[in-house]
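testing teh design pipeline on a random one, pls ignore if ur not involved
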């Protein structure tokens, strides 16, 4: 199985400036984000990450890369916010649009 770093993906797929990074990789988000150089995120105007086991280290790394962060729960289950949710760069996606997308996601579960 071929493994990719964020930098490799950006280079191989010629990711353009102001792109959106959406990450849903069932637990490997920690390795992918924490092992990426903060400068690797510069090509992205928005980062959305589904996390599973806490967000503090990912949040700190993204803030080091220059992002402001906000935590949004993905469902109303009795799971603490530290254990589930999405992130995105504040201001790059209107809150009403995000809430519409979140509602659509919840209704599909």
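output:
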């Amino acid at each position: 199985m071929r493994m990719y770093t964020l930098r490799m993906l950006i280079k191989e797929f010629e990711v353009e400036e102001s792109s959106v990074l959406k990450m849903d990789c069932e637990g490997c988000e920690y390795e992918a984000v924490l092992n990426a150089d903060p400068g690797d995120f510069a090509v992205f105007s928005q980062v959305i990450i589904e996390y599973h086991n806490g967000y503090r280290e990912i949040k700190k790394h993204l803030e080091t890369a220059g992002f402001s962060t906000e935590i949004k729960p993905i469902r109303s289950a009795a799971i603490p916010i530290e254990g589930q949710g999405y992130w995105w760069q504040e201001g790059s996606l209107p809150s009403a649009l995000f809430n519409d997308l979140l509602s659509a996601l919840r209704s599909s579960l």
